[in-house]
Amino acid sequence: MLKPRAAIVALDAYQSPIADRAGLNLDLNENTAGCSDRVLARLRALNKSDVAMYPDRTAGERAVADYLGVPHDSVLLTNGIDDGLLLLSAAYLGEGDEMLLADPTFVMYPIYGRATGAQVVRITPAEDLAFPVGEVLARIAPRTRLITIANPNNPTGTVVPQEALLHVVKAAPDAAVLVDEAYFEFGGETLLPQLPSHPNLFVARTFSKAYGLAGLRLGVLAGAPEQIECLRRFCSPFNVNAVALACLKDALADQEFVRDCVAQIKQGRARLIAMCEELGLRVWPSYANFVLVRVGQRHREFVDVMARRGFAIRDVSANPGCAGCVRITVGTRSQVDNLLLAMRAAVEQIRS
What we know:
Blueprint: H1 6-9, E1 24-26, H2 37-44, H3 48-52, H4 58-68, E2 75-78, H5 80-92, E3 98-102, H6 108-115, E4 119-123, H7 133-139, E5 144-150, H8 162-171, E6 176-180, H9 184-187, E7 201-206, E8 219-223, H10 225-232, H11 242-253, H12 255-278, E9 282-283, E10 290-294, H13 299-308, E11 311-315, E12 325-329, H14 333-351
Parallel strand pairs: 1-11, 3-4, 3-5, 5-6, 6-7
Antiparallel strand pairs: 2-8, 7-8, 9-10, 10-12, 11-12
Helix pairs in contact: 2-11, 4-11, 5-6, 12-14, 13-14
């Protein structure tokens, strides 16, 4: 009887949180303002040939490289950051290797790591959920071949100091170190300038968050040219769809849209954190477009009550270190206005 590899059979199935898109969806860290009007106009201008022909990502990669300020041969466009994660796992992990990560973190990291047959080494989260740089450094071993760090982190929204990140990169010269900057625009710190000095460093970016293009699946993987060239050898030549590539230059050109969205989210984030503190809920400082909140034992009831009030938020209590926690995406000003009213009422309801 045909069976997949044992590493695949042993994986737990990923359960998509998308079940009902009714109400305001604040559960997947999407841009609730939508995409740029320039991007929308480009979408509407697509013709039959644009859709029927295989796409070429070369021009898009050059445009992104110029925008990021890195050499053209340092960039690979991917089908969302997930595609880049899969490529890194396949390139650097195999049976007997180790993937190192610190919990809590993005749920797909260990899934891709285990799928290769590698051992996933998970660092137990600290009580304050800060990045445990000392523990990570202590666990780096000759078998360590891939280290993944989300910065800002998902689901906490916290950041790792750049000095700590570079300690990890320097301590593991034989391992690929991915710094996942999916939420860069909301935090502002990047390791991109460090790429020329560290051939084992990779930086990932996405157009899903600040740019509002989650549905188009467009990610960026930047690294040393010789490493990116190796990834190209087995990356699908048409991994990025024609629609996403057609919209890329317009998305990059409309930085005013990005700035406005980021400014609104930062303001809303501060208001949401202040409301949580006022309600006596534990909340973490966030440098992303969401906030992690510890509701406590009645977190599921809180999620249900918010859903009935028209707001879908993410229950992340199953993540290591996140017992009783929910993650709430920050929306536009008017959406935050309504969210705060609903939160106050929901907390009062479950406490009464």
